Amino acid sequence: PVGVARALAATAPPDVRLRVDAHDDARGRAVAHALRDEPRLELRVHPPFDDDALHTYLQELDVSVLPYRWGTHSGWLEACHDLGTTALVPDVGHFREQAPCLTYALTDDGPDRASLGAAVALAHRTRPTWRADPGDRERRRAEVADAHAREYRRVLAGVAR
After folding, report:
1. ∠ CA 97-99-103 to the nearest 5 degrees?
2. d(CA 109, CA 3)
3. What angle do CA 126, 132, 133 make, to 5 degrees?
4. What is the C-alpha to C-alpha distance for residues 103 and 87, in angstroms, rounded to an integer?
5. Residue 150 sits in which domain range?
6. Do 107 and 150 fall within a single domain?
7. What are the residues whose beta carbons fall under 8 Å from the beta carbon of 3, sequence distance 6 or more?
């Protein structure tokens, strides 16, 4: 998170407001401490949000920048997509296949400043909005539940033999 926040502070257009939220645990306080001298960053340290507060927070943002260094999928990205908040994610894992989003390059040395700055500038100019369709989400949940139920029945039928 520190490298991404510093790169944002160095590359984001001057009229972009940059907010960094960190939990009030040891790791979050360490992040805030490391960024305390970045004048462009508005730092907020607080307890983890409950679901309602998280949803409100995400809806207040124009773009949520995810500082992941690895991973395959993200519940945070799903929440952004459900709420219509544009997400900016690194080009690792399968985040960009998970939901519509903007991406930046991640190198061994951290975020690529040029691609991060360009993505923030693009988001600032164009204000992309991708929002999941609640009906599609409900259909997908039902399909997954049905597939699990079929598989459990198949496995239990084999055990009963």
Report:
1. 70
2. 9
3. 120
4. 8
5. 133-161
6. no
7. 67, 110, 111
Supply the pTM of this predicted model.
Answer: 0.84
Let me know whether 62 and 121 are in one domain. yes
Tens digit of pLDDT for each residue in 38-89?
Answer: 999 999 999 999 999 999 999 999 999 999 988 888 999 999 999 999 999 9
Query: CA 68 to CA 66: how far, in whole Å?
Result: 6
Question: H-type helices in 12-160, by residue range?
Answer: 26-34, 51-60, 75-83, 95-98, 113-126, 134-159
Angle at the Cα of 28 from the Cα atoms of 71 and 19, rounded to 5 degrees: 85
Tokens describing residue 78: 């799903």
Asked if 71 and 45 sit in the same domain, the reply is yes
CB 101 within 8 A of CB 87: yes
Q: Are residues 94 and 146 in the same domain?
A: no
Residues 115 and 138 in one domain: no
Question: Same domain for 118 and 149?
Answer: no
How far apart are alpha carbons 103 and 118 in whole angstroms? 10
In this structure, are 70 and 141 located in the same domain? no
- DSSP 8-state code for residue 27: H
